[in-house]
Amino acid sequence: MRKLKVSTLVTLDGVIQDPGGFGETEQGGWANPYFTEEAEQDSLEHLMEADYFLCGRTTYELLSKTWGKIKGGPYLERMNSMPKLVASRTLAEPLEWNAKLISGDVAEEIAKLKLEPGKDIEMYGSASLLQTLMKHGLVDEYRVWVHPLVIGGGKRLFIEGGHSAKLRLASSKTLSSGVVILTYEPVS
């Protein structure tokens, strides 16, 4: 049985928007100085544990446009080669970047996929999609990469009026850059 693991880069004030500097905000790229070899290795290890990369439309459009054209390095090679599942009501197939559209009930499709044998499902960002998955109790692990900076505005990881969840801290890891990776699991 697969697990759904959500991994998100976040500022100390809870912002997840444009950590890679893909042009969404003026403050974009805030996570780039912290993406050291150590961070890349940790990210690669988690991608290697997954058969699928799941994301929403916005994350897909931003990452495929940028990362899909970059060659080199084990992390990007893995990301570019693995199958992607994209949750969207507005996109149409065919999709680029080794991606397939989930056009029906996303929660139902992910629940079915989780029951199949295989490696995990990794998801980055996608705050709206996260809310849908939380509503249906589908998230098995939250990996929150807390960056030591405050930028004052932008999309938040957990939205006002969103779904609640009781979590337990499963592990924590402090990187040499000052980023703290907090891994939480739902409390049954």
TrEMBL record:
Q: One Pfam family for this entry, by name?
A: RibD_C
Residue span(s) of domain Bacterial bifunctional deaminase-reductase C-terminal: 3-180
Tell me the InterPro entries matching this sequence. Answer: DHFR-like_dom_sf, RibDG_C, Riboflavin_Biosynth_HTPR
Source organism superkingdom: Bacteria
Q: What is this protein called?
A: Dihydrofolate reductase family protein
